[in-house]
Design brief:
797 residues, mainly alpha, Tetracycline Repressor, domain 2, two-stranded antiparallel sheet, 1% strand, EXOC3/Sec6, Exocyst complex component Sec6
Length: 797
């Protein structure tokens, strides 16, 4: 007896056919990091092996028990056949003993011959009688069958005539078998054409009976294929009648098997005497096995119909509630109709589970959309819960759905989300990059006249679609993973924007003639768009955090806050670029400050102020107000750093006093008036205080300069390289005087312990002659920029 193994999860009938992986090891080891997971994979495989071994042991145990039972029955059958054989041998011996006496044998032969003639006459008369009545009986049975078949519900109807038809049909088939057997025996004995023709005539007589038998069998299997629908229609009695017929036919099959065993052990003469029993022998119908096959086919047909009707994988999964309804109906209404030894509940559950596993594997192999994977993962959890409510043993649900790898759906889902989001973003960035660099048309404007890009809106539409789908899963881990991966894509886009911005600004500075116009407008639009993206990310964080536990809330918050910071960094870089464009136009003018004779004679500051005013008016009309406020703040800082750096570069004794002081006061007054249009005067005064301190030091005597320097150092730190450059620039002090003053300042610094200020000031932006600009900014500028980035949140809030 063959060992029955659990059915394979693969098979035909999948909704979405595809090809599975041909190399499982390659699937496990996709990257070097996967080597670290070997221990986990090994434990997982050992666990699966243990489960398979347990199932195999259970199957082996069951098969061994069935084999022992079968062998026991075979031994009993062999003993019974042996006893029959001994009895028949005894009969043969009695006959042989009687035949030793010639007279007795002749009498016995005559009696036997007369008995045979009499029996043949009776049988012939009975055959003729049955043949004469058979046509009418077949017609009556045909009418009964037609009556059942004509019911509006078809095979799902009541079929009240099943047992009556089967009973009479069974008698007619027995009569047919016996008659044809005798005709075959007679034709073989006669060895003539007439005998063969008689048999062919009989076969034609039974053609209507054969047709009726075939129709009846087809009707039985039509009912068997619709057991569930029949029960739903309230015709459970039909199923009971069907099962009764199957039980009767099963017993007839057992009789036929017994007759065949008798034929094998009986000798030739005994076989001749059992020819009437052989006449009733028939083909094994095996109705019970066919019934179970029809049940399996009906389950598969239900799934096939569902797959055809489903528009996609999600639709198929959402419509699978019919399966749970079927199982509930089977347990409550179908199960009581079947004998216990059918184990029909177990059979149905296994049939549904096997076909369901095939369908799910088909969906997975068809490269489904991400939402299908997520829906499938959630549905499998629901399925397990329902099976638990049905109290279905785990052994019935083997192999596990998707080979127990349903959790891998989440990994596949996240990978698919990232891949799709990446592709969408790449295409979006290509379009935005092309528009930003070619600048064939000006950027779009909103109703307020603000320049806008479509990047942030489109990107967050895509991100929200995927995030909402993950949120629908009800799993915080899934949502956190999707948010984290989406944040990575956002960060990648921010990096690309910074590179594009730097490249376009560099082209504008180096090759202004060959660079397309409109860079200012597009930088303004990008700054607005990045601020809008930060708003979108902040809204996403506020919407998602309440949906998850504290564990995943922290992950979502950290990832999205990092993305928000990145968007603000890009917006900040846009502001810096806009300011750099202004001062790039003023480069030739700012170089002349303090160092050129024209500074004393020409109105250079008026030119600087007018240029800043022109740019600022353009920016103000198209820039987000929050960004514009930061731009003014940064522009003021940039002006001060440019002005102070120009002062630091003055040649020794290059500052002509008191003319230079008067010039500086006049220039600062003009700039103060300009910035006061956009900022509070007190704030502007605070920013220009450093210039006032420097002017005071330029006006101070050698003995009193320390007092002015003390006020400066208390706020901005020692800044000795800068102070030395300024003091050496005074034309009213000689080298010795400057040296003495500097020695005094250095001594006072040591004595008083003057150090760097707690908060960075504008002086961090002034180049140190002993350090490179890059080093200076690396060490200090980041700290200075921090409060400005924070102000973006304050303004937006």
């Amino acid at each position: 007896m063959a060992l029955l193994l659990p059915p394979s999860a693969s098979g035909s009938g999948s909704l979405f056919p595809g090809t599975g992986s041909s190399n499982p090891l390659a699937d496990l080891l996709r990257s070097p990091d996967d080597l670290l997971k070997l221990s986990a994979h090994r434990k997982k495989l050992l666990k699966e092996k243990a489960q398979i071994d347990a199932r195999l042991n259970e199957c082996v145990k069951t098969q061994l028990e069935e084999t022992r039972d079968g062998l026991r029955r075979l031994v009993e059958a062999r003993n019974s056949v042996g006893r029959l054989r001994e009895e028949m041998i005894g009969i043969e011996q009695l006959k042989d003993a009687e035949s030793t006496r010639k007279e007795g044998f002749e009498v016995y032969a005559k009696i036997s011959k007369v008995a045979n003639i009499h029996r043949n006459l009776n049988q012939t008369a009975q055959i003729v009688k049955n043949l004469q009545s058979m046509s009418e009986r077949v017609a009556n049975l045909d009418a009964l069958l037609t009556s059942d078949q004509s019911h509006p519900l078809g095979p799902c109807g009541p079929s009240p005539n099943l047992l009556a038809i089967h009973y009479q049909l069974q008698q007619l088939e027995a009569f047919r078998n016996e008659t044809l057997h005798q005709a075959k025996t007679s034709a073989s004995a006669a060895k003539g054409e007439q005998g063969q023709e008689d048999r062919r005539t009989l076969v034609r007589w039974f053609e209507r009976l054969d047709d009726l038998g075939n129709r009846f069998e087809e009707w039985l299997w039509a009912i068997a294929s619709n057991i569930l629908e029949t029960v739903r229609e309230g015709n459970g009695g039909t199923i009971v009648r069907l099962l009764k017929i199957i039980e009767v036919e099963g017993k007839e099959d057992q009789k036929a098997v017994a007759l065949r065993l008798i034929r094998k052990v009986a000798n030739a003469d005994s076989a001749m005497r059992t020819r009437s029993m052989q006449a009733n022998a028939r083909l094994i119908k095996n109705y019970r096995h066919k019934l179970m096959d029809k049940i399996t086919e009906s389950v598969r047909k239900s799934f096939n119909d569902a797959e055809i009707q489903a528009t996609d994988g999600v639709g198929f999964l959402e419509d699978l509630t019919w399966m749970f309804k079927d199982l509930d109906r089977i347990e409550t209404d179908v199960r009581p109709l079947f004998p216990e030894d059918y184990n029909v509940w177990e059979f149905y559950v296994k049939a549904y589970h096997t076909r369901l596993n095939e369908a799910l594997n088909g969906i997975v192999k068809s490269n489904p959309e991400a939402r299908v994977l997520l829906k499938m993962h959630a549905w499998i959890k629901e399925y397990r819960g329902v099976m638990k409510e049905f109290e279905v043993p785990g052994a019935w649900l083997q192999p596990a759905l998707l080979d127990g790898k349903s959790q891998d759906l989440i990994e596949d889902y996240v990978a698919l989300i990232v891949d799709k989001f990446d592709k969408w973003t790449i295409n979006l960035m290509k379009t935005e990059n092309r528009d930003f660099t070619s600048r064939d048309a000006p950027p779009e404007t909103d109703p307020d006249g603000t320049y806008v890009l479509q990047f942030a809106m489109i990107m967050f539409q895509m991100a929200n679609q995927q995030v909402d789908l993950a949120a629908d899963s009800g799993q915080g881990a899934v949502l956190a993973r999707v948010v984290a991966e989406s944040a990575k894509v956002m960060t990648s886009c921010q990096t690309q924007w910074l590179k594009i911005l730097e490249r376009e600004f560099d082209k504008q500075v180096r090759l202004p003639e060959s660079t397309p116009p409109g860079l200012v407008e597009y930088v303004v639009a990008l700054a607005n768009d990045q601020l809008k993206a930060a708003d979108y990310a902040e809204a996403m964080s506020a919407r998602l955090e309440p949906l998850v536990s504290e564990k995943y809330r922290q992950v979502i918050s950290e990832r999205l806050n990092a993305a928000i910071d990145g968007y603000l960094d890009v917006a900040k870089r846009c502001i810096q670029t806009l300011i750099s464009l202004i001062f790039n136009d003023l480069k030739s003018v700012t170089k002349a400050l303090f160092t050129s004779p024209t500074w004393y004679t020409e109105p250079l500051m008026e030119q600087i102020v007018e240029t800043m005013k022109d740019y600022t008016q353009d920016y103000r009309g198209h820039l987000n107000p929050a960004i514009f406020d930061i731009l003014i703040e940064d522009m003021l800082v940039q002006f001060l750093s440019t002005y102070l750096n120009a002062l630091r570069k003055v040649q020794p004794r290059g500052i002509k006093l008191p003319t230079a002081v008067s010039k500086m006061k006049s220039e600062i007054s003009q700039v103060f008036t300009f910035f006061a249009e956009y900022k509070k005067q007190d704030d502007v005064s605070g920013e220009f205080e450093v210039i006032d301190m420097i002017i005071s030091m330029l006006q101070a005597t050698p003995d009193m300069v320390f007092m002015d320097y003390w006020a400066f150092a208390a706020k901005h730190g020692p800044c000795l390289p800068f102070i030395e450059a300024v003091l050496r620039g005074r034309d009213d002090w000689d080298k010795t005087t400057v040296g003495e003053v500097l020695d005094t300042l250095k001594r006072k610094i040591r004595e008083e312990g003057i150090g760097e200020p707690e908060e960075p000031t504008i002086m961090v932006r002034v180049e140190n002659p002993n350090e490179s600009l890059l080093t200076n900014l690396t060490n200090k500028a980041a700290a200075y920029a921090g409060p400005l980035a924070a102000s973006a949140f304050a303004v937006r809030g």
